[in-house]
Amino acid sequence: RRRLAPLNEDNGRFLLLAALIAAYLSAGATVFSALESPSEAAAQLRWNRTLHNFSRIFNISLPELRAFLRSYEAAMAAGIRVDALRPRWDFPGAFYFVGTVVSTIGFGMTTPATVAGKVFLIVYGLFGCAGTILFFNLFLERIISLLAFIMKACHERQLRRSGLLPPNFRRGPAMSGVGSLVGWKPSVYHVLLILGIFAITLSCCASAMYTAVEGWNYVDSLYYCFVTFSTIGFGDLVSSQNAAYQNQGLYRFGNFVFIFMGVCCIYSLFNVISIVIKQVLNWVLKKFECRCCPKCHKSSTRLSRRNAITPGARLRRHNISVDTDGQYDSDTEGRRLSGEMISMRELTASNKVSLAILQKQLSETANGYPRNVCINTRQNGFSAGVGALAIMNNRLAETSDSR
């Protein structure tokens, strides 16, 4: 009888993440239901009491009153308010709208009402959202490169203070001969910390501006910043919607800058966090690997003795980093001495992870290597980037290598 093949690492990681997301969603629903449900029920009771009192005092039947309120709800959906608001479809308002479309924020306070506008939005959003996501990935690569250079400079400064580097040391090819810098790699967790601090600082500054200009309290301003920067965009709070502001031009410019920088920063932070989460999933999978199957565990142990390098061994020895210094530049170099027709590069390529890709680029950027250096030379033109685009490119490279 044919036995079913065990789950590979990708499928196991996917199922584990799906289970964790389901548990996370259930926990969040439980907490929000416990927090918000009593307030909702109390508000509904107050509204029913107010509605009946209004109907009784002014001698208006409840069906007529409800019909009037439905008309008012339709007017609100069309953007009509009791208080004067800014025009929704003048050029600044339309620019604000298309910005929320391509960034996928989607507040919902402005929507096209004509058939032509809805059809154009479909075509416009298709290319606009794709181009904006590409821009976010390129922004992530640039910010990672900048952080790598800064951390490299700080590391060299510490080495100079400790006397491990000569005072006249300059970056370049000669630095590979300096023992204190060989193997140094900027930490991904430091990048995560720096991006987190920058995102918090940006949100606090933006919240101070919204509190002063919009009249919101500081907690509501922080809430608006997170909902907007993360592109959730509920639309319950929307900035720059009043008819007039003091220093209106300056405020609109500041609002645009804060939203633009906030979305880019939070997107970068989310991608780095997702890489760390993936590493946690890999660690969990390795802890549970073959514990219920001694035969598989024994086979895995025997395989690791036959090979000088096993998938993931370098990652464990070098603290989640990739070491591709050119030892195996051809298909014949690096093959196992036992004669199997598989190269060590192909063996280790199947276990690359996004965190390793990110640290590899950090190391190459900090040490001045060319940006077009790839982890695997047979990637059909796909460069080893970072973030969501790198995850897709890395997967395409693995697929092409395996066929």
Automatic annotation (TrEMBL):
Record membrane topology: Multi-pass membrane protein
Source superkingdom: Eukaryota
Location(s) in or outside the cell: Cell membrane
GO cellular component, one term: monoatomic ion channel complex
An MF annotation (GO) of this entry: potassium ion leak channel activity
UniProt KW Metal-binding keyword: yes
InterPro entries assigned: 2pore_dom_K_chnl, 2pore_dom_K_chnl_THIK, K_chnl_dom
Reactions this protein catalyses: K(+)(in) = K(+)(out)
Annotated transmembrane regions: 94-112, 119-140, 188-210, 222-244, 256-277
Domain Potassium channel: residue ranges: 86-143, 199-278
Pfam families in the record: Ion_trans_2 (PF07885)
Alphabetical UniProt keywords: Cell membrane, Ion channel, Ion transport, Membrane, Metal-binding, Potassium, Potassium channel, Potassium transport, Transmembrane, Transmembrane helix, Transport, Voltage-gated channel
GO biological process per UniProt: stabilization of membrane potential
Family: Belongs to the two pore domain potassium channel (TC 1.A.1.8) family.
The protein, known as: KCNKC protein
Organism of provenance: Sclerurus mexicanus
